[in-house]
Amino acid sequence: MLSKQEILKLKRFLEEFSWLMDTYSKIDLKKASLLIDESLGETSELRKAVGSYESKNPNIQFLTGVLPSLFLDDSLFRTNDDIAEFASTVLKLEIPRHHKKSKYEIIGHIVCETNKLNEKELGNLVGALSLLVNDEKGKEILAKKKKDDSFSWNEMIQTLTKD
Q1: Is residue 41 part of a domain?
Q2: Domain of residue 94, residue span
Q3: Residue 64 within a domain
Q4: Fewest Cβ atoms nearer than 10 Å: which of 6, 88, 107, 163?
Q5: Could you tell me if residue 82 is inside a domain?
């Protein structure tokens, strides 16, 4: 037997459901159901095609995903010079005329060049950046240290990768 409270709850549900059905009466629910079925089929086809993909260079794939968000963090990279210095020091990539390019152009250049980097040398960098990206306090500490004149990205990477 339902309690009075449960009956009132059921009544409110039916009233709201009735209102929804009236409001959306022009929607063909059978067609909506078919559309959902079709989209599920497309998803599984896409999953079949992409699901078997396995990166030959997981470190490079990680960098192409992480570097843009890292470079857009103004507490770490305020200027184009900061990004170019990181690219030169850590990734060994030179950005020609970086002072004349937009931040997005520089980031795009670095991401595209990342595919050419040596996979074996990237292990420590990827480890350090994954720690940095996932640690807000670490970012704050890094931003403070970065203001110091003797700051070095290489030293910071080594510090982050120490156990």
Answers
A1: no
A2: 58-161
A3: yes
A4: 163
A5: yes
Q: What is the pLDDT of residue 62?
A: 79
The model carries a pTM of 0.57
Residue 33 has pLDDT above 70, yes or no: yes
Per residue, the 3-state secondary structure of the chain, as one string, reads CCCHHHHHHHHHHHHHHHHHHHHCCCCCHHHHHHHHHHHHHHHHHHHHHHHCCCCCCHHHHHHHHHHHHHHCCCCCCCCHHHHHHHHHHCCCCCCCCHHHCCHHHHHHHHHHHHCCCCCHHHHHHHHHHHHHHCCHHHHHHHHHHHCCCCCCHHHHHHHHHCC
Instruction: Report the pLDDT value the prediction gives residue 104, as an integer from 0 to 100.
Output: 93
Round to whole Å and give the CA distance between 58 and 122.
10
pLDDT digits (tens, 9 = 90+) for 76-110: 888 898 888 888 888 888 888 888 999 999 999 98
Over residues 127-136, mean pLDDT:
73
Alpha-carbon span 81 to 99, nearest angstrom: 7
If 0-12 CB within 10 Å is exposed, 13-18 middle and 19+ buried, where does residue 84 land?
buried
